[in-house]
Amino acid sequence: MIALGWPASHPAAILLAAMLVESAGAAALGAERPLESASEYLDCRYSTDSPSVQSSAEDTPGPAESVLLPDNDVFRPLLADQREARFYADYRLIRFKNSSNVLSEGQGRYINAALVGFGGAFGIWGMRHPRGCDGLQVSVFGAVFAQFNLDTPSFDLLNADYLVGPELTFRRGRWSGRVRFYHQSSHLGDEFLLNYGIAHGVQRQDLSFEIADAFVSVEHTWWRLYLGAGLVVLSSSQPDLASVPAFLQWGFELRGPVWAWLNKTSLRPVAGGNFSSVQATSWTPSASVNAGLEWASPRDAHRARVLIEYQRASMPFSQFFFERTQNFGAQLQFEF
Fold first, then answer.
1. Sequence spans of domains, the chain
2. Residue 46's CB: how many other CB atoms inside 10 A?
């Protein structure tokens, strides 16, 4: 036991004891606050899923506040867009509809393929209502997409695409939007060129360009509609996509009822369709649809999906974007 050197009734001893009690109480309160914050966490990408977005007359949102390094966005990633910046892995049975079918590497009109994506957005700054999701956010996003031919001995890498750039997202109630300006470069795989491409006259093209696009979205608890358009602002000379720069994109999403599962996690059915028309391919429409189950963490901050995919479209990757394909497969998606 440590002697204080003065009676316990001394005012200094009483003050010291009070400070210790207050410190212990503050520590306990601090330990509880993360739990409170976790229970009140709201993923603003999916804000219409929660009634807490609707502020009552007694609990108005208040003025928007500046936020550095915001931890969640206000625009929901497009569910059925193959080029959305997210993590995914999928298997596809691809049928090439054109006669050349260079990407099949001599395997005929059909190949088994693996498609993977690695990407996301990092919030830099935002203006956000403290008890709601209305506001805007400035982020930087990046993504890598790669495709592999599973019918070759070494699972040849066919192509890899790299996207990076800034984006501005915003939300007002059920309406949200996104504006981006980004760089894309595409690179044919070394295995594809060495094992097949060079011997069959494939010339690597410097496919590099800058794109500006904008989307607007309206959503409810169980449905969403979106529309977007963009332009190729700058492009390499071969091919010169800046001379035929425009594209349109639109789609829908459906979200079913929530089923509680495994220690407060949840399951729900989801489905989506993404459609586009590109001037460089004479505005021929492309379509991609998917449906499956979404598994969400208790805070809905992490989501994993198992989806069945069907696509009837031009190749969305590499210098062979004019190739028409039809493919079917399954995909794992991850959101953080």
1. 65-335
2. 20
